[in-house]
Amino acid sequence: xxxxxxxxxxxxxxxxxxxxxxxxxxxxxxxxxxxxxxxxxxxxxxxxxxxxxxxxxxxxxxxxxxxxxxxxxxxxxxxxxxxxxxxxxxxxxxxxxxxxxxxxxxxxxxxxxxxxxxxxxxxxxxxxxxxxxxxxxxxxxxxxxxxxxxxxxxxxxxxxxxxxxxxxxxxxxxxxxxxxxxxxxxxxxxxxxxxxxxxxxxxxxxxxxxxxxxxxxxxxxxxxxxxxxxxxxxxxxxxxxxxxxxxxxxxxxxxxxxxxxxxxxxxxxxxxxxxxxxxxxxxxxxxxxxxxxxxxxxxxxxxxxxxxxxxxxxxxxxxxxxxxxxxxxxxxxxxxxxxxxxxxxxxxxxxxxxxxxxxxxxxxxxxxxxxxxxxxxxxxxxxxxxxxxxxxxxxxxxxxxxxxxxxxxxxxxxxxxxxxxxxxxxxxxxxxxxxxxxxxxxxxxxxxxxxxxxxxxxxxxxxxxxxxxxx
Length: 471
Ligand code: GAP
Description:
Layout: H1 9-20, E1 23-25, E2 37-39, H2 41-60, E3 65-68, E4 73-74, H3 77-81, H4 84-87, E5 89-94, E6 101-103, H5 104-107, H6 110-122, H7 125-136, E7 152-155, E8 158-161, E9 171-174, H8 179-184, H9 186-193, E10 199-208, E11 223-233, H10 238-255, E12 263-267, E13 279-287, E14 290-301, H11 303-312, E15 318-319, E16 326-327, E17 330-337, H12 338-349, E18 350-351, E19 359-360, E20 371-375, H13 381-395, E21 400-402, H14 408-418, E22 422-426, E23 443-448, E24 454-458, H15 462-470
Parallel strand pairs: 3-10, 20-21, 20-22
Antiparallel strand pairs: 1-2, 4-9, 5-6, 5-7, 8-9, 10-11, 11-17, 12-13, 13-14, 14-17, 15-16, 18-19, 22-23, 23-24
Helix pairs in contact: 2-12, 6-7
Glycyl-adenosine-5'-phosphate binds at residues 177, 179, 209, 211, 220-221, 224, 226, 228, 293-296, 333, 335-337, 339-340.
């Protein structure tokens, strides 16, 4: 479907999300909480549809995959062993004039940050401040010249305390990635499922990062949701499975209905790799605010299992059933953000190229409502009764909407805007023993979102139709 790109797309999508109940500002009645967002009645349906589609595709339909749902709070030793306490930080610089803090590699280019980092590493303490002013020069917020403090590494993990005492011994962290829940349960899963390599453990859940510069709506937040797979393999096969997961991720993006022309694969240079990764490819999407990471695929080697074994003393090796050899499996990790998926899907589906109606062209599988049911006229009890019967019956199997307000045209536009693939109208012809045309008896009008064309469909075929076409 060709559509003309709209101006101010981001503003339009944010406004639609608020107006129609996809996403609300968090704690809004108290003036909000910086960059926190709540999913409303339609947003939660869209989000659940994305998660269910992912789970069905990558867990249920595969023999080599099992699921997991681990705790958000984990023993702090986990974060020591995983390297997060030491390494999971962003470089931060503060302007001494306005006291704004900036995540350097977001605010300036990667090149600038790497040059500065290299210089700082080799500089004496007294030289450091001068070097910073030379490279960063001007504050992007207040414009002050040469007022920066020496950058610091800022750890992104959210700290909390377990129990009533707020001391060192009770410190804990909310997980910054779901992945570690999988690694610490590796032995439990292996013992209970007897899976053989290669196999994967999948998990969907919240992760928390104290981001320095959250923003761009639900793109970067401090609390977000991930869908992650740790795919365990023999070391010798890592290149093969890396390619395999690249192609699985491409076809997942295609399944979401996202325009592949807006997707770009970015190979991380060695210097940018996370502390655990030997190769990372990001799937970037052309967001209205620039080309940014949507998902990541990393080769984590045996880094995590090896370090958890060393730190915990538990044997986390895999024993090959044929050779009896024991080793730490290596890991390929497709890591996907749920919220970034919601954002990319909404942006991609937004179409106001036709001045008469705005259409959210979501894939039917993702649409919050599969269908909307209307009685032609709200003041004719026999129509309302017949329409209610159909609505109640469909509702058992599908998420369907009811609308009897205003005229039919307005109801269509209202459903187009939230991406409902079909609208079903019950009119006099639909009624048993109707005075309408004999062919029309026991049928309803089905009107399609994408084409605005209409069909008559037998009432007793509706469920089958919705099941085949929309789920
Ligand atoms: N376990 C690997 C890992 O967490 P990551 O690249 O840091 O890797 C994976 O995160 C995905 O999680 C990203 O590609 C993105 O979709 C999502 N994500 C990361 N930080 C986020 C944030 N602050 N807000 C929303 N989504 C985020």
